[in-house]
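Same chain as my last thread, 115 residues:
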Amino acid sequence: MTSCLWKHAEGHDPVPAAHASRPYHVYDHEGEHLGSFTAWETAHEWAHLQVALSALPAPLEVEDRHRDSRRQVWADYCAPFPAPAETADTTGDNDNDGQAATAFAFTPPHPRRPS
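reply #2:
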């Protein structure tokens, strides 16, 4: 498995034992909860391994409730989800002709919260 460059740029420290919780969650492509973790690095690496070594279809989603962010994870890379906009519409007109060409064909449902 190749090293994900993102984890070096923005590491997350484990939650102190006194405040033990599981704020990092992994979901499959259909939004089913797969696991909860106390450390970002553990959840992130586990998701990469699940896609690489099991029959789970990619991408998986890793949710960080501390930062209110999510990442989609494939076997060899990951990306923020939803992806940041590539360009902002600065012309002032709302011509949506190019929007259909750049939109995703399938967006997984919002992940369910673990019970």
